[in-house]
Specification:
alpha/beta, FAD/NAD(P)-binding domain, Flavocytochrome C3, Chain A, domain 1, 9-stranded mixed sheet, 4-stranded mixed sheet, 15 helices, 29% helix, elongated
Length: 490
């Protein structure tokens, strides 16, 4: 086994002359790093951003680009929806729970409209159009989408209002988002040092974080931070040892990342006594298409339904992988499949097509009669517009009839090139450093580590045990901004 690289801190008194000095040193140039750098620079601080890759973006740039925003944004109003922070909070507390961080969540909901305007000030474009169909992300350039707010049980908790805000980009919008955010940070005065991997923090004799040691093209580079260091280095899904220690449910599955989410920032901080929080919590995406799942059903390896298929797809993904026996299958009939618009099929084709459910059971290796019983019960209630077991919205209820098809998530999206190819699931981590609402990193006594801040997936954010798309980019930028302002004010 390859030994772990040392993350033990360096002593300030042993450094001598620094290669670079600044007021605020931001480590990582994804969405949280860009937000932190922008706000710190706008507050008058001299800001340097370290990025281990050759340019900004990180996993944020490879994401779908959804931003969970609400409370009455301009896009919501333009699309005809009335929203308020309390309704947004009620939904998110349930969807991100149990045990969502209510202090962070309250601030996020109350500040959501202002945060949306911050994105627009950064140049992020949003179209005032609404995509009204279940999907992981639209292939269109619509600026607003549902993210489970209109599904049971969430539609009983708060008035359903769509809050998925999307940059004007067809499909993956993370690249557009990061292009604008990174440009805004540099225009504000932040200076980026790319191809530079931070490896260790620097402490003064009083235990205050005073900078960082990095590697650039094999050479050691030292950075003095006169006010603070902000860690925005991402999660740890690419670190197999950390997954085994903290989130083993993701072992063997695909990874939603740029390949560099190795927990480096978390490790550097814990080496100086920082506390972590909720390190076992993860998000999982099953490579099944909501547009098809809603029109049919999602079943486990024993042919059983287990959740209302019109809920946010991350919910049925996590529930499947954590609680149901695999493999998992989308079961749909010909009418349902043909009803999905061609662009929304994402290249998915059925792996098995049969005239009878008994034949389909045999092809899928299910117990005899299992899928037949599931479909018989489903059809009985669907004919009456009901789903008493799982409460799928009646608009998606219709008895399924021959011929039947099964679509295998293990094939991946877009002709087999999806991130979940292999097991049909891919994920990322949500736990990280324990921080205050202003990004101060806490130690195990609950006391802030002097001079150290964190945001984004390197920190434990708003999430409890649940997740909704857009809450990583939203949480990372919102609390990245707060960390940047707080660090600059030291």
């Amino acid at each position: 086994m390859t030994p772990r690289s040392s993350v033990e801190p360096f002593a300030l008194r042993d450094i001598g002359d620094f290669d670079h000095e600044c007021d605020v040193l931001v480590v990582g140039f994804g969405c949280a790093g860009a937000a932190a750098a922008s706000e710190a620079a706008r507050a008058g601080a001299d800001v340097v951003v370290l990025e281990r890759a050759s340019g900004p973006g990180g996993s944020s740039a490879q994401s779908g680009g959804e931003l969970y925003l609400g409370g009455g944004t301009g896009i919501q109003k333009a699309c005809g929806f009335d929203d308020d922070p309390d309704a947004m909070y009620a939904y998110l507390e349930a969807a991100l729970g149990p045990n969502a961080d209510t202090a962070k969540l309250r601030l996020y909901c109350d500040g959501s409209v202002e945060h949306f305007e911050w994105f627009r000030d950064c140049g992020v474009p949003f179209n005032p159009t609404f995509y009204d169909a279940p999907t992981w992300m639209p292939m269109s350039e619509d600026g607003l989408m549902w993210l489970g707010e209109n599904s049971w049980p969430y539609n009983t908790i708060a008035k359903p209002v769509p809050r998925g805000h999307r940059p004007a980009a067809g499909g993956f919008g993370g690249g557009v988002l990061m292009e604008k955010l990174s440009a805004a940070a540099t225009e504000a005065g932040a200076v980026a040092h790319t191809d530079t991997l931070a490896t260790n923090l620097i402490l003064d004799d009083g235990g205050r974080v005073a900078g960082a040691v990095a590697r650039k093209y094999g050479n050691t580079v030292t950075y003095r931070a006169r006010r603070a260091v902000i860690l925005t280095t991402g999660g740890f899904v690419d670190n197999e040892e950390m997954l085994a220690d903290h989130a083993p449910v993701l072992l063997g599955h695909g990874k939603v990342s740029d390949g560099l989410d190795d927990g480096s920032g978390i490790r550097m901080a814990t080496a100086i006594g920082a506390a972590t929080r909720r390190m076992s919590v993860v998000e999982i995406a099953l490579t099944a298409l909501p547009a098809m799942v809603c029109r049919g059903m999602l079943v486990d390896g024993l042919g059983r339904r287990f959740l209302n298929e019109d809920v946010y797809p991350g919910h049925w993904s996590v529930h499947a992988v954590k609680h149901q026996p695999g493999p998992y299958w989308t079961i749909i009939d010909e009418e349902g499949f043909e009803d999905v618009p061609e662009p929304d099929r994402w290249g998915l084709r059925p792996r098995y097509v049969t005239e009878t459910l008994a034949e389909l059971e045999e092809s899928l290796g299910m117990p005899a009669g299992s899928l037949e019983a599931t479909v018989e019960t489903y059809n009985l209630h669907a004919a009456k517009g009901e789903d008493p077991f799982f409460h799928k919205d009646p608009k998606w209820l219709r008895p399924l009839k021959s011929p039947f098809a099964a679509i295998d998530p293990r094939a991946g999206f877009f002709g087999g090139t999806g991130a979940g190819t292999g097991t049909g699931a891919a994920g990322f981590t949500l736990g990280g450093l324990h921080t205050t609402v202003d990004g101060e990193v806490l130690n195990n006594s609950g006391v802030p580590v002097p001079g150290l801040y964190a945001a984004g997936r390197a920190a434990s954010g708003m999430h409890g045990e649940g997740y909704v798309s857009g809450t990583s980019l939203g949480d990372g930028t919102f609390f990245g901004r707060r960390a940047g302002r707080a660090a600059a004010a030291l």
